[in-house]
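Chapter review: from sequence to fold.
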Amino acid sequence: MDRNQVIGIVLILAMLVGYQLLVPKPAPEKQAAQKTQTTKPTTASGAAAAITKAEQPLDSAAAKAQFGDFATVATGENRDIVVENKDIKLTFSTQGGRVKEVILKNYKTYDQKPLVLIDDQRSKTLLELPTNRGKVDLHKLYYQTTTQSGTVSGQPQQIVFRAEVAPGQSVEQVYTVPAEGYVLDYDLKLNGLSSTVANGDIRFFWEDKMSQYENDLSNNRRAATIDYLTADENFEKLTEGESNQEVTVEEPVQWFTIKHKYFLAGFVAKNAPMPKADFKALVDPADSSVVKTAVADVTLPIADVKAGKGQYKFYYGPNDFQLLGSVAPEFDQNVYLGYSILKPINKYFFVPVFNLLEKFISNYGLLIIALVVFVKLLLTPLTYKSYVSMAKMRVLAPEINEIKERVGDDMAKQQSEQMKLYQEVGVSPLSGCIPVLATMPILFSLFMLFPNLIELRQKPFLWASDLSTYDAFITFPTLPFIGGHLSLFTVLMTASSIAYAYYNNQTTPTQPGPVNMKALSYVFPLMFMFVLNSYPAGLTFYYFVSNIVTITQQQLIRRFVDEDKIKAVLDENRRKSASGQAKKPGGFQALLQKQLAAAEEARKQADEAQRKAKQKK
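The token string follows.
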């Protein structure tokens, strides 16, 4: 492995370590607009406590005292209505006219149980309406509906929940369930209640004790968060991790989502955004039954609801990039595709290519192999150029060794003499580095993409039952750095990286310097093994296949590279340089030549100063 490749590996390692150690933090200007504080993972607020109280039957006097003008609908029949389409099963309750339970029909939990995204025990909501006699929780009222349980097919189905407060006065909640998909349109209407409703916005409170759907609880907690989009389309999120966070957003919010690793429960304002919002993500390390407690406390503009514009959406479904773009502006940002410089590569290349290959290849292990081959074919010109650069270094190896013997251990002089040699034969020291660096964004993009691809979730390949998480080939008590398991795909990736390093070291001359680069080329793969051991099996399998394909590719390229012809070209360049016929270098080569001349002049002056100092003595 030559110095250029080691530089590339160092950059990858820095990226991986930085990704592990650095947690995204809100920008300073955002912190100024947000009030952030740490809270204890106890009850989220007084509203949550009120919601979780056991329901007690109300007599007429108690109902009148608590609900005022709404006392007539404070009692009634609590009935469940189950409506489903091909993708989702929804349970509505006539108490509250709300969504009580959501089951995603096409997905299972890691232990193959039905994936219940929302249930009545873990998810609590409050819809608080300001009235002249106090605040009334619309989710405690009883509603009437003519809808019966059933399956939606063909056209979307409307479910109307109506609470008749008095003749000509009512509250309506209207849900529109599509024939397929995960988006529910939701309209909130206040009919004839202008004299009853007071000033002030409606409060929507949602607390969700997030269930564990994937096998790694720690990884689930790091991924679980609340995402939101402000009115000026700034995408924000609570810090992902295992700590508590509370954020008060002072600017209006268009939508928010309670985000699991691969699934979302979201609320979208279709018209006017939500004027105020408080978000919390709370973790109790002692409670392994809850990933995180997510709390959203927002306000809905009452003027819009009075005017018949209280139109919203609920999204209950997978965090799938292909599905989210049509839900709301920037809603697909719930799928993390990497830093801003890498995101376009994933968004406009890898995701479309991956989805295209899905149409033809049903086995996701084979799909990853096809993706590797496709990417390697695209990068073949760069790979060829890098190999030719290494071939030039091999041709020059005898002269480089002669320089080392001639100048001894003076590293500065060695470098200077080497640069002179490169200049004479027309070899750029960066000619091999640039192709390697050009492939770095590809590796970084995949590193960001694979952990967030729901397409890999629960897709088996060989011994791995789920390519979206690690393949625990061997489990053992938790150890520092490596955890409590060993991933076989990670071991294979490490072995192939060492084999690739050995192959390169046999064909690459030793580079001068204080560090043994060839030895480091064996150390780096071992370091990567500890970093990637808990990453998705799909990612480490991709890197494993990539190493194998790269070695094969270089073996094929080797057959087309004639080192005797390369030596003849270098000798001709040397002859032209000696006779002054060589093409004048430009760009970086000219700058390098200038710096080399300056360094040589400085060295001569230092030698002269030392000689004069010795003469004076």
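Two observations follow directly from the output. The first strand starts at residue 34 and ends at 37. The two ends are 48 Å apart (CA to CA).
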